[in-house]
UniProtKB/TrEMBL annotation:
<dbReference type="Pfam" id="PF01244">
    <property type="entry name" value="Peptidase_M19"/>
</dbReference>
<dbReference type="InterPro" id="IPR032466">
    <property type="entry name" value="Metal_Hydrolase"/>
</dbReference>
<dbReference type="GO" id="GO:0006508">
    <property type="term" value="P:proteolysis"/>
</dbReference>
<protein>
    <submittedName>
        <fullName>Peptidase M19</fullName>
    </submittedName>
</protein>
<dbReference type="InterPro" id="IPR008257">
    <property type="entry name" value="Pept_M19"/>
</dbReference>
<dbReference type="GO" id="GO:0070573">
    <property type="term" value="F:metallodipeptidase activity"/>
</dbReference>
Length: 329
């Protein structure tokens, strides 16, 4: 069985310690998507992070491997190595150039969403004035589809996410988002969004963040409750896990350079407080998830789907697009 964590965050620094990745692997995770930047990070910082992460992975080939396909992930699991790809949270690192998508794909980015909480030139964020996908955004969706990158709608505004899902020719995911019906937070997704995601063939991956789970100290049963809700709404084939654990490391300052204002990205009006940061499920919660999902009413086969097989199915389809296009040409 492959356990797939659709989103995790190390410090946005080239010298980030990969010990948290080893903890995830020890807890049974076979694949993780590591964030390498968001809308608040300039391209210079994003590229520095990618270079640093790639160097760390390359320096320890017995432990890590940067993968390009689901077959690579299966092989990595057989070899006892952690499979890794990267993701971007927002389109601003694309510099309004659809051609940048192909470059990031070559560097290991296999997943992207277009807006981190706030509106930009491409898409609308979930903590901003409602706005749909722009004309440039339509071209960006086409570029993401053509380059075999998972189209993600986490952090995206509701209207815009629906338009992205309508525009995409490939399945769309929410790599770390929870049902709004269970916890009324602007980062969570409505039943309409969940149904639209499932209609694309996509997957909604449950986050382990306290704000979105509705638990001050979230654990496996909290994650399972949200997963079970999505399964009951649209079917178990559209549920995954993306715990969104953010690992801070003393001594590494990954604050974006320039005039960075945290309250802009995480506004108090949306329920955030700089004095009360969120808590996260620990990596070891992965060991407890099978039991928690079983208590939530899932069979062993359904648990395998949620913990990895659903995301494997979608990635298999999406990541193989460039190869299919090359054969057709």
């Amino acid at each position: 069985m492959i356990n797939w964590d659709a989103h995790a965050c190390l410090p946005q620094h080239p010298l980030a310690d990969f010990t948290p990745v080893r903890r995830l692997h020890a807890a049974g995770v076979n694949y993780v998507s590591l964030n390498v930047g968001a809308d608040m990070n300039p391209v210079s910082q994003v590229m520095s992070v990618i270079a640093g992460y790639r160097a760390t992975i390359a320096a320890d080939p017995q432990r890590y491997v940067l993968v390009n396909s689901v077959d690579d992930i299966i092989q990595a699991a057989a070899d006892g190595r952690m499979a890794i790809t990267f993701d971007l949270e927002g389109s601003m690192p694309l510099l309004d150039q659809p051609d940048m998508v192909a470059l990031y794909a070559q560097l290991g980015v296999r997943q992207i969403h277009f807006a981190y909480n706030r509106n930009n030139s491409v898409a609308g964020g979930c903590h901003d004035e409602p706005r749909g996908l722009t004309a440039l955004g339509q071209r960006m969706v086409e570029a993401v589809n053509a380059n075999g990158i998972l189209m993600d709608c986490s952090h995206t505004g509701r209207l815009c996410s629906l338009e992205i899902m309508n525009a995409s020719s490939q399945p769309v995911i929410f790599s770390h988002a929870n049902p709004y019906t269970l916890v009324q937070h602007g980062r969570n997704v409505t039943d309409e969004q969940i149904r639209a995601c499932a209609a694309t063939g996509g997957v909604v991956c449950v986050s382990g963040l306290s704000f979105f789970l509705g638990s001050a100290q979230p654990g496996a049963d909290d994650v399972a409750r949200h997963a079970a809700y999505i399964a009951d709404l649209v079917g178990v084939k559209h549920v995954g896990i993306g715990l969104d654990i953010c690992f801070q490391q003393p001594g590494l300052d990954d604050t974006p350079p320039g005039d960075f204002d945290p309250s802009h990205w995480w506004p108090a009006s949306a329920g955030y407080s700089m004095d009360q940061p969120p808590s996260f499920t620990p990596p070891e919660v992965w060991r407890e998830l099978p039991g928690a999902l079983r208590r939530a009413g899932m069979s062993d086969i359904e648990i395998e789907l949620v913990l990895g097989r659903n995301m494997m199915r979608v990635a298999q389809q999406v990541w193989s697009v460039p190869e299919q296009l090359a054969k057709a040409a």
